[in-house]
Amino acid sequence: MTRLESLDGMPGIYRFHSRACGRTRGNSCDCQCTFQAKFYDCKSRRCRVRHFEDAASAQRWKESQREAKRVAKVKAIGGSVSDAYSSIRKSAQSVDRAYVDASDTEVRSSLSSALSLIHAAEDEIVRALGVE
Ligand SMILES: [Zn+2]
What's the domain count of the chain? Predict the structure, then answer.
């Protein structure tokens, strides 16, 4: 049995069993496993691997790597569309900060819907540019 166990619905995230785990001998798991996230970085042409205590953190890291890659690709294209994408991302950050600060329920709900529109615009630009 391999020490890496793939997880349903979480591609690129694995449960990483210790060398001494019973699972490696065909028994059930009796170790304190960690979670491994793998991400292929085109720029360095290497696979980045990191370990986390829980699957959610591993997934968050993988997601942030994917986003950074997307941002770099859009930036590399350049031009006005690329600039628009940068502005939209800045707007998203401002609205997100405002959302965190807002205590009024109504304000929070309008900021939240503004945020989803901004994210939709972001996705649309990425799709139109054919970046991932
Ligand atoms: Zn185990």
Answer: 2
- Rounded to the nearest angstrom, the distance between the alpha carbon of 79 and the centre of ligand 1 is 50
Instruction: Tell me whether residue 73 is in a domain.
Output: no
Digit-coded pLDDT (tens) for 66-106: 888 889 999 999 999 999 999 999 999 999 999 999 999 99
- CA-based end-to-end distance of the chain: 34
- Distance of CA 22 from the midpoint of ligand 1 (Å): 7
| Same domain, residue pair 48 and 94 | no
Q: Report if pTM > 0.90.
A: no
Q: How far, in Å, is the centroid of ligand 1 from the Cα of 11?
A: 19
Burial 72-87 (b: 16+ CB within 10 A, else e): ebbeeeeeeebeebee
Domain annotation covers residue 67: no
Q: Print the domain residue range for 119.
A: 78-129
